Amino acid sequence: MHKSVLLEECIENLNLKENSIIVDCTLGYAGHSSEILKRIKKGFLFAFDQDLDAINYSENKLNKIGNNFCVIKSNFDNIKNELNSRNIFKVNGILYDLGVSSPQLDNDERGFSFHKDARLDMRMDKTKTLDAYYVVNNYSYEDLVNILYKYGEEKYSHSIAKGIIKNRPITTTLELSEIVKMSVPEKYRRETHPARRTFQAIRIEVNNELDAFEKSLKSALELIDVGGRICVITFHSLEDKICKDIFKSVSSIDDTVKKLPVIPNEYLPKFKILKTIEPKKEEVNENNRARSAKLRIIERIG
Ligand SMILES: C[S@@+](CC[C@H](N)C(=O)[O-])C[C@H]1O[C@@H](n2cnc3c(N)ncnc32)[C@H](O)[C@@H]1O
């Protein structure tokens, strides 16, 4: 089952009030959403996920807590349209707990894991057509190198791409994992699982994860009301950098006006970065998924 990461820290920092309107962009197995719903008895929770398995499970779970919620089956990059179409233009808190859930990783059929044999899939939204099988078997050498380098920060992107092309067709996760292993130097095989970066890269490509997150986070900044907070849990440096850069740009004063003796109101930042929290040792010991997590929090101040 899925163990929510940085749960207490998120709940504390979302600054929930009884009548808060909160958006959980990554419902998953409703670990965070359940705790939110318990605390906003007179408020409302909107929860997004693109995975029907997660939604079916979580709707049931949330129904046992209250009925002041709405689950939206959509990519969170549609957050603005989806909320506006429900006459919601401002909210008090927004949460992202990025990436995949443990049940997605553990379910043999989903093809996310290099430990479990499955057809190459990796789609969070099973209604989409692009899957890992297509990427692995149809992308050009240049495109594969690019993806592995950009989304996996993989230093052996060239040799892995060559290995993939030479061994096509590749049908399963374990076949791919073995091909990656044979394409990298022996020393690298001992450092960490050699296929970890390749699987991360293909998953990001299949689900267009980074573009979706960037688009959604920019919309979230428009939707959050004064005093409201956005909490983002990231699991790798690529998504963390997007979050860090966007938070920095909206919370700092433009260089061109910095030197003015009095800074006009319209140039004052509308956001304040509150803090970045990493999981405690005990949490990492209990939940390996937490080892690379970072929670960034920003508040709208104007
Ligand atoms: C790490 S899990 C969230 C776990 C949840 N916070 C909990 O405590 O149970 C991430 C979830 O977000 C969903 N997800 C990831 N990217 C998404 C996107 N762009 N749009 C909608 N849902 C997304 C995944 O399908 C997955 O169910």
How would you characterize this protein structure?
By secondary structure, the protein is an alpha/beta fold. The chain has helices at residues 7-13, 31-39, 52-63, 79-84, 102-106, 132-138, 141-152, 157-166, 173-183, 186-191, 196-207, 209-223, 237-251, 255-258, 281-286; strands at residues 21-24, 44-49, 69-73, 91-97, 224-234, 271-277, 294-300. Strands 3-2-1-4-5-7-6 form a seven-stranded mixed beta sheet, sandwiched between helices. The model has no long low-confidence stretch (mean pLDDT 95). It binds S-adenosylmethionine. S-adenosylmethionine (SAM) is lined by residues 2, 4, 26, 28-32, 48-51, 54, 75-76, 97, 99-101, 124, 212.
What general form does the structure show?
globular
Helix content: 40-55%
CATH architecture of the largest domain: 3-Layer(aba) Sandwich
**Mind telling me the CATH superfamily name of the largest domain?**
Vaccinia Virus protein VP39
Q: Give the ligands present.
A: S-adenosylmethionine
**Cα end-to-end separation:** 40 Å
Give the strand order, joined by hyphens, for the main sheet: 3-2-1-4-5-7-6
**CATH fold field value of the largest domain:** Rossmann fold
- How many strand segments? 7
Number of helices: 15
Provide a brief overview of the structure.
This protein is an alpha/beta fold and 302 residues long. 45% of the residues lie in helices and 16% in strands. It has 15 helices and seven strands.
List keywords for this structure.
302 residues; alpha/beta; Rossmann fold; DNA polymerase, domain 1; 2 domains; 7-stranded mixed sheet; 15 helices; 45% helix; 16% strand; binds S-adenosylmethionine
